[in-house]
TrEMBL record:
This is Uncharacterized protein. Pfam families: DUF538 (PF04398). Gene3D superfamilies: At5g01610-like. It comes from the Eukaryota. Coiled coil: none annotated. PANTHER family: F22D16.19 PROTEIN, T31J12.3 PROTEIN-RELATED. Keywords: Signal. Residues 1-24 form the signal peptide.
């Protein structure tokens, strides 16, 4: 391949490269931590991400969709692309994350950190959970109840507080 062709090919493909593949750049989980969020709000297996630090726009990528149950109370589903806006202690305009409550799938549209709790909003209602529930990233398919010993930690759903939006 001629050097000029290689340079043109690199310039054409460079916008497709995500931040997490650049040497020395933080992983998606480390990027979350820089905004005061625990890594466990994303499942294991994020293959890359894009983050515009000037606007807070982000996209995180999985190899496919991902779903799992948490203590039989909730079922979570992630699309292959998760997007939204991130700022310190706040994720807004979320797309690609859903929770099954009773018989209905609801999109999680916002996550806010309030001290030692995370508030998850589906628009019409929100639920708060202790921050320490999210220090470990769940695995697609088995969540936090996977076979290996490291995953045997149970999610502490200590009476989450639920409220409706005003």
């Amino acid at each position: 391949m001629a050097p000029i062709t290689a340079i043109l090919l690199f310039l054409l493909l460079s916008p497709l490269l995500t931040t997490s593949f650049v040497a020395g750049e933080p992983t998606a989980y480390e990027a979350l931590a820089s905004y005061d969020f625990p890594s466990g709000i994303l499942p294991e297996g994020i293959t890359g991400y894009e983050l515009d630090e000037s606007t807070g726009k982000f996209r995180a990528f999985l190899n496919g969709t991902c779903s799992f149950s948490l203590e039989g109370s909730y079922e979570l589903s992630y699309k292959s692309t998760i997007s939204g806006l991130i700022s310190k202690d706040k994720l807004t305009e979320l797309n690609g994350v859903s929770v099954k409550v009773l018989f209905f799938w609801l999109n999680i549209v916002e996550v806010v950190r309030n001290g030692d709790e995370l508030d998850f909003s589906v628009g019409i209602a929100s639920a708060s959970f202790p921050l320490d529930n999210f220090f470990v990233s769940p695995r697609c398919g088995c969540g936090l109840n996977c076979d290996d010993e490291f995953r045997m930690r149970k999610l502490k759903l200590r009476n989450p507080s639920v409220s409706s939006s005003e």
